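Now for today's protein:

——
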Amino acid sequence: MIKQSYVRNRSFASLICIFTIFLTTISAQNELNGFDNNGERHGVWTKYFEGTNQPRYTGKFNHGKEIDTFKFYTLSNKKSVLSAVKVFNAENNLADVKFLTSYGKIISQGQMDGKKYIGEWVYFHKSSKTIMTTENYNDDGNLDGPRKVFYKNGKLAEEAVYKDGKLHGTSKWYTDSGGLLRTSEYKNDKLHGDSVFYDTEGRIATLGEYKADKRVGRWTYYKEGKVVKVEDLGDGD
């Protein structure tokens, strides 16, 4: 009798031990907002808006480094609304990013390095999947290269070129039917060089030159393709 009781007690103790280990493992796997031995955030994290049970962001850390998918929220009518999704690269600080409206439509998308925009970014018209703007950023997070703006009908509205955050090169503006409205030259973010303005029929309306944002030299004005006025503004000095 004593031997049977001893065996039963040992079996019960073993079951309790196994069950405890199982629960501990599950708890560790599901632990939120944890830290590693160096005090770095590690594992799944959820932060809440202060004084609420509504998440501000959710995501996963690997010894302080964001990895995989993070979701960010704004607070609207006391409820969390998804506003951005970032998918982090485990090898560096790069993340593929999408910003969203309150009803889930993509506002813009591109890549970020920390808080800097890099590479090509695409923006969409409100309540539409039509592209509104495309622009390019260098590794310093400055506009660099072509930037284009489109009408809702998909036609090109504006195009410009940037160099390290400044307008530099030829910019053009168009009507919503594709007609050219204006061309201007820029240098270091200032109008510098020839500018040509067109009428609704595509004919030259005004032709002149800028120097560091100031009109200089000979300016010619046209009406229905004929010269109606010429003025000389000097060299601007």
Q: What stands out?
A: The helical segments are 2-29.
